[in-house]
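Figure 6 in text form: structure in, sequence out.
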């Protein structure tokens, strides 16, 4: 039997140390460009999708 995670936020990527992000691993980037690149790489590695929340945060979601 195969077990897999579905429909979950796996991580967040941001450029600011925002204490409101809790419950998931947070990756901090120095620039906006680095944040986008990290989001893309993490989504590929985790076989998930990166979503721009529009507030300087990307979330990595497994659908």
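Output sequence:
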């Amino acid at each position: 039997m195969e077990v897999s995670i579905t429909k979950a936020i796996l991580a967040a990527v941001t450029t600011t140390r925002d204490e409101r992000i809790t419950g998931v691993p947070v990756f901090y980037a120095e620039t906006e460009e680095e944040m986008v690149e990290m989001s893309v790489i993490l989504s590929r590695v985790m076989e998930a999708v990166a979503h721009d929340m529009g507030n300087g945060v990307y979330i990595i979601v497994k659908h």
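Caption detail: The mean pLDDT is 94.
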